[in-house]
From TrEMBL:
Keywords, sorted A to Z: Activator, Cytoplasm, DNA-binding, Nucleus, Phosphoprotein, SH2 domain, Transcription, Transcription regulation
SMART domains: SH2, STAT_int
Name of the protein in its database record: Signal transducer and activator of transcription
One GO CC annotation: nucleus
Lineage, broadest ranks: Eukaryota, Metazoa, Chordata, Craniata, Vertebrata
The organism of origin for this protein: Cyprinus carpio
Record localization: Cytoplasm; Nucleus
PANTHER family attached to this UniProt entry: SIGNAL TRANSDUCER AND ACTIVATOR OF TRANSCRIPTION
Molecular-function GO terms, alphabetical: DNA binding; DNA-binding transcription factor activity
Matches recorded under Pfam families: SH2, STAT_alpha, STAT_bind, STAT_int, STAT_linker
């Protein structure tokens, strides 16, 4: 719903706050009649602190005036006549107000829209968890923007002080030159007759004394100005560090964590546009302060005055260099991760981005990025700054790429589109570790300079852990390694340490996230499903979820040790269920037709209280990626006795021949889907139309009889 429509429904104090946003600077009638147009314009895409953006702002102002004029021209009738005059007047008024400062119009409208959105959000969502989260995010963003405004004011203040210092110093130098001229005149008196010297000397001595006294006072004043400016810069740099910590150590790290969880099927990590805008503001503010500090140093060198200022300026210069270095190296990030299960001889892609590249004009001399695959041990050594002698653990084809600047989006990125891992060199494995537990990473590195080669940066960034496979049969176990790492990695860890055991509820969250993503369903794992999985994982019979809250599951239980009496692990069984559901059972899972996570005994207990012909669908306990049909019927060997029958499990191979719905349709003794839904009501929309099976010669009709499928060939 449009913000303006919701804003008009505000009441009480919120309505009063909304109305107070408007006035002669921006009439509420303009907001009302152009609401859709106003909300559709890219106001946030304009940087108010960049004078070069004034052209964009001017275009928006001109478009606004044109829209008002068009709206005015379309008014008819008596009421329309008055509105036509009023809208025309507003068009002239806005042009007169903002024609010379269009950025102020943008500032005004951004403030209006932001405040309206906040008021609407507070009014509609304050009682809901989502609303609270949105308010929290809004508050955080507001705090970040407030800090930027404070930095802007501080930077402008030090700029003004610096100009004042420069002006005073220039005047000081002029007066100093005057003192030298007086001294020269006094020296030249020695060549004059005594009478002339006595006549002129007192005046020159008086002038010299006056000027020297002024110079002494002014030198002290200049020193105070310099110290005051340095102290202000210290305050600015402290706030810069704090703001940079919030953006890089909080916001960017959170984005990277979301990116990692997205690898497990979590929600998308979100775009980088807001983060980039913040990082660019940081870069711009840092660079402005760095230039100011350099100018202050130049002034000191131009006019040395004994005191602590030299040491202070050296410290400031070192601090600002550290800050910009941290910003540049931290904002060299992987926007699109390479696949975490990486098969040799297979093409793959990745995208690397420098969030401050455009603002620091790195694109003027486009840097090249190199990709290398390294082992876990090499990654550890790299982060310790140990000499790795440019070692790699394999050979990647097409592993060099030049960063490109995209003018429309302002992004500087390198798109590796056709990389391929030609070979891999594995390290000695530890204990029971298999090849699908060995982790590698793709190292991306580059070098570039900023500020006309003033500063040269070597930047490196590591991808999320990668498991290398050579055959598709290894994919299942490799995915388990990736899932565990993505779910349980701690921020800032030593590569690529993860806990060996985790609480069962933590694992449930990861499994549910993965299941919903793989099956592409909003229907996740229910509490009953998770209890079933706990029973399987821990060989337990308890049906109480609380019994599993504090239980832990080790990596070995997850995907090293086989389940009791089986030749597969817990993860291999679960992954088989996901694959089968994803490929063949998705609509039935989404419809709720598949109970799935039910064991044989539970199925029997559930069905025995139902009429004959009632059936349910459950995942096979004994076979990976199998689903079986259990139904209740008479026992043919004992009159009057009923029993539960179980078909042999169907697998992907079976469903590639005939679908689940058609197989259920073929089995006439299946009448009701548990608990009591007629099977045709549930499955008929998925039946294959009869004519599709007999539309030409030499086609097959499949008739399912009990546990076997017989194929009749019609000629």
């Amino acid at each position: 719903m449009a913000v303006w429509i919701q804003a008009q429904q505000l009441q009480g104090d919120a309505l009063h706050q909304m109305q107070s946003l408007y006035g002669q600077h921006f009439p509420i009638e303009v907001r009302h009649y152009l609401s859709q147009w106003i909300e559709g314009q890219p106001w946030d895409g304009i940087d108010l602190e960049n004078p070069q953006e004034e052209i964009k702002a001017k275009r928006l102002l001109d478009s606004l005036i044109q829209e008002l004029q068009k709206k005015a021209e379309h008014q008819v009738g008596e009421d329309g006549f008055l509105l036509k005059i009023k809208l025309g007047h507003y068009a002239s008024q806005l042009k007169s107000t903002y024609d010379r400062c269009p950025l102020e119009l943008v500032r005004c409208i951004k403030h209006i829209l932001y405040t309206e959105q906040r008021l609407v959000r507070e009014a509609t969502n304050s009682s809901s968890p989502v609303g609270s989260l949105m308010d929290s995010m809004s508050q955080k963003y507001h705090q970040i923007n407030q800090a930027f405004e404070e930095l802007r004011i501080l930077t402008q203040d030090t700029e003004n002080d610096l100009r004042k210092l420069q002006h005073n110093q220039e005047y000081f130098i002029i007066q100093y030159q005057e003192s030298l001229r007086i001294q020269a005149q006094l020296s030249s008196l020695a060549t004059l007759p005594p009478a002339d010297r006595q006549l002129r000397e007192p005046s020159l001595l008086s002038k010299r004394a006056t000027v020297e006294a002024w110079l002494t006072r002014e030198a002290n004043t200049l020193q105070k100005y310099r110290l005051g400016l340095a102290e202000k810069h210290q305050k600015t740099l402290a706030l810069l560090r704090k703001q940079q910590t919030v953006i890089l150590d909080d916001e960017l790290i959170q984005w990277k964590r979301r990116q990692q969880l997205a690898g497990n099927g979590g929600p998308p990590e979100g775009g980088l546009d807001i983060l980039q805008s913040w990082c660019e503001k940081l870069a711009e503010t840092i660079w402005q302060n760095r230039q100011q500090i350099r100018r202050a140093e130049h002034l000191r060198q131009q006019l040395p005055i004994p005191g602590p200022i030299e040491e202070l300026l050296t410290e400031l210069n070192s601090t600002i260099t550290d800050i910009i270095s941290a910003l540049v190296t931290s904002t060299f990030i992987i926007e699109k991760q390479p696949p975490q299960v990486l098969k040799t001889q297979t093409k793959f892609a990745a995208t690397v981005r420098l969030l401050v590249g455009g603002k620091l004009n790195v694109h003027m001399n486009p840097p090249q990025v190199k990709a290398t695959i390294i082992s876990e041990q090499q990654a550890k050594a790299l982060l310790k700054n140990e000499n790795t002698r440019n070692d790699s653990s394999g050979e990647i084809l097409n592993n060099n790429c030049v960063m490109e600047y995209h003018q429309t989006t302002g992004t500087l990125s390198a798109h590796f589109r056709n990389m391929s891992l030609k070979r891999i060199r594995r390290s000695d494995r530890r204990g029971a570790e298999s090849v699908t537990e060995e982790k590698f990473t793709i190292l991306f590195e580059s070098q570039f300079s900023v500020g006309g080669n003033e500063l040269v940066f070597q930047v490196k960034t590591l991808s999320l852990p990668v498991v290398v496979i050579v055959h598709g049969s290894q994919d299942n176990n490799a995915t388990a390694t990736v899932l565990w790492d993505n779910a349980f990695a701690e921020p800032g860890r030593v590569p690529f340490i993860v806990p060996d055991k985790v609480l069962w509820p933590q694992l449930c969250e990861a499994l549910n996230m993965k299941y919903k993503a793989e099956v592409q369903s909003n229907r996740g794992l229910s509490e009953e499903n998770l209890v079933f999985l706990a029973q399987k994982a821990f060989s337990s019979s308890s049906v109480n979820p609380e019994d599993y809250r504090n239980m832990t599951m080790t990596w070995s239980q997850f995907n090293r040790e086989s389940l009791p009496g089986r030749n597969f692990t817990f993860w291999q069984w679960f992954d088989g269920v996901m694959e089968l559901t994803k490929k063949h059972l998705k609509p039935h899972w989404n419809d709720g037709a598949i109970l799935g996570f039910v064991n044989k005994q539970q199925a029997q207990d559930m069905l025995m209280s139902k009429p004959n012909g009632t059936f349910l669908l459950r995942f096979s306990d004994s076979e990976i990626g199998g689903i079986t049909i259990a139904w209740v019927a008479e026992n043919p060997n004992k009159a009057g006795e009923r029993m539960v029958w179980n078909l042999m499990p169907y697998t992907t191979k079976d469903f590639s021949i005939r679908s689940l719905a058609d197989r259920i349709s073929d089995l006439n003794h299946l009448l009701f889907l548990y608990p009591d839904r007629p099977k045709d009501e549930v499955f008929s929309k998925y039946y294959t139309p009869p004519l599709c099976n007999l539309y030409s010669k030499n086609h097959y009709m499949y008739i399912a009889l009990n546990v076997r499928v017989y194929v009749l060939v019609f000629k």
